[in-house]
Design a protein that fits this description.
Elements: H1 2-16, H2 23-31, H3 38-48, E1 52-59, E2 64-71, E3 74-81, E4 87-93
Antiparallel strand pairs: 1-2, 2-3, 3-4
Length: 94
């Protein structure tokens, strides 16, 4: 039940975030060399983070990819700078 509630909460937050870029915007930024390709960063973050990979978001304004994982009923957010590929923050939501 707790996992279901967390998934619903995270889905609601994802839909409520206004600064998300569409797929075409992201591809344009990659082509222009402004950000790194999502797939390369995703592969590394998924390998380095314990838990079940739930999904990801991109914030166009901050140029941050947010990766979401579930581990033992806890939602873990891993934020990565899309320009450098460096992890900038890791948070747990209870």
């Amino acid at each position: 039940m707790r996992i279901c509630s967390l998934l619903l909460l995270s889905t609601g937050l994802a839909l409520a975030t206004p600064a998300l870029a569409g797929p075409n915007d992201v591809h344009e930024m990659v082509r222009a060399g402004e950000i790194m390709p999502f797939e390369a960063i995703q592969r590394r973050v998924v390998q380095e983070t314990q838990g079940e990979y739930v999904g990801a978001q991109f914030d166009q304004n901050s140029r941050i990819y947010r990766f979401r994982f579930l581990r033992e009923g806890i939602l873990i957010n891993v934020d990565v700078d899309a320009r450098t590929g460096e992890r900038v923050r890791r948070r747990q939501s209870y």
